[in-house]
């Protein structure tokens, strides 16, 4: 029963998050096409800011709604990271990945049906970014998001209740940094859904899977290292009472 509730929550949460994020992106590109993939291609910073705000705020609100139902993940890379640090059983993780991918398709289809004009919410390389660079940009951006999830949501601390806000801010900052170069996916479901609806997969579409996957592995490794070193005792006042009590005996 709990798994069914969590899976349903994750599906509807993913649809809600990406529906409004995609709608914001579609609106932003009405009079400003996506960045061309050539060196020196002009960047419309107001458009990129509009898109980053759409994704960041949509994630913060959607994660806040579904945080106590499914965790408010909405991202296969985040789910993979939680499985790596053993915060989620692999079977549950696999089920969530499936519904997240389906949710991405449904959200893209809804935006395509509701809003006029061709769908322009896909991710693509821009500004002359090579495939190799795009891969590592996606890796580092995803690592940033995953570290936010690990240290705000998994760890019991005083700031855990505002974790969804942290998720949204992390995505907002990551998109400001990377949207011009790769579209700042950080989320296979976010890139996969529009490709399915548009029927167009770029030859480098794989970087939006491998990059976030590598980011999950890197951030999980750093998190496990910090746990191994006992980071909880470094700044005791910021942790929950159980951790503070344990640290006081060291």
Topology of helices and strands:
Elements: H1 2-28, H2 45-66, H3 76-84, H4 90-114, H5 131-154, H6 163-182, H7 188-198, H8 207-228, H9 241-248
Helix pairs in contact: 1-2, 1-4, 2-6, 3-4, 3-5, 3-8, 4-7, 5-6, 5-8
Structure in words:
67% of the residues lie in helices and 0% in strands. The protein is built from 9 helices and no strands. The chain is mainly α. It has a single domain (2-248), classed as Glycerol uptake facilitator protein (Up-down Bundle), CATH 1.20.1080.10. It has helices at 2-28, 45-66, 76-84, 90-114, 131-154, 163-182, 188-198, 207-228, 241-248. α3 packs antiparallel against α4, α3 packs parallel to α8 (207-228) and α4 (90-114) packs across α7 (188-198). The longest helix has 27 residues, at 2-28.
What keyword list fits this structure?
mainly alpha; Aquaporin-like protein; transmembrane helix; 0% strand; Glycerol uptake facilitator protein; globular; 250 residues; 9 helices
Tell me the domain tally.
1
**Radius of gyration of CA atoms, rounded to a whole number:** 18 Å
CATH homologous superfamily grouping? Glycerol uptake facilitator protein
What number is the mean pLDDT? 90
Task: Fill in the CATH topology.
Answer: Glycerol uptake facilitator protein
Q: How many individual helices?
A: 9
Largest sheet: none
Condensed summary:
The chain contains nine helices and no strands. The chain has a single domain, classed as Glycerol uptake facilitator protein (Up-down Bundle).
């Amino acid at each position: 029963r709990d798994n069914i509730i969590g899976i349903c929550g994750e599906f509807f949460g993913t649809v809600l998050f990406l529906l409004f994020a995609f709608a914001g992106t579609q609106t932003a590109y009405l009079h400003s096409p996506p960045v061309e993939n050539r060196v020196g291609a002009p960047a419309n910073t107001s458009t990129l800011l509009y898109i980053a705000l759409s994704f960041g705020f949509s994630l913060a609100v959607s994660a806040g709604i579904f945080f106590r139902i499914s965790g408010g993940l909405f991202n296969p890379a985040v789910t993979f990271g939680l499985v790596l640090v053993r915060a989620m059983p692999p079977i549950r993780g696999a089920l969530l990945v499936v519904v997240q991918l389906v949710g991405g398709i449904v959200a893209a289809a809804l935006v395509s049906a509701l809003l006029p004009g061709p769908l322009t919410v896909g991710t693509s390389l821009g500004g002359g970014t090579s495939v190799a660079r795009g891969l590592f940009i996606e890796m580092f951006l995803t690592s940033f998001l995953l570290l936010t999830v690990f240290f705000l949501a998994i760890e019991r601390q005083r700031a855990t209740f505002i974790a969804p806000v942290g998720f949204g801010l992390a995505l907002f900052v990551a998109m400001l940094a990377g949207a011009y170069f790769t579209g700042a996916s950080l989320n296979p479901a976010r890139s996969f859904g529009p490709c399915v609806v548009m029927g167009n997969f770029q030859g480098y579409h794989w970087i939006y899977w491998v990059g976030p996957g590598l980011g999950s592995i890197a951030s999980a490794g750093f998190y496990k290292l910090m746990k191994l070193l006992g980071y909880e005792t470094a700044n005791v006042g910021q942790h929950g009472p159980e951790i503070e009590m344990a640290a006081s005996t060291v």
